[in-house]
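pasting for the record
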Amino acid sequence: MTKTAIKRELHKAIDIVESEQLLKAVHTILSSEIKHKNEVLKPFTLEEFYARNAQSQKEIKQGKLIEHKTVKNISEKILGKI
C-alpha cells in the first residue's frame, strides 16, 4: 500500500470511528510525530546561524573535515550492503 493510499484510508477511518478513546489515541500518536518534526525543522535565528557558521569555520581550520568524495564512498559501501 502506498503512502497516499494509507493516508486516504486513515482519513476515511477517522471520519467513521466514533470511539473518543481511539480518536484520542490516534491524536496522541500523530501529535507526537508532528511535534518531533517541528523541533527537527525549527529554523535558525540569525544568531544561531552565525554561531554555527563560526564553529564550522573553526573546525575546518582544525582539519575536522570529511571531504565529499569520502562521504560518498562510505555511503555507497553502506547502501551497497543493504
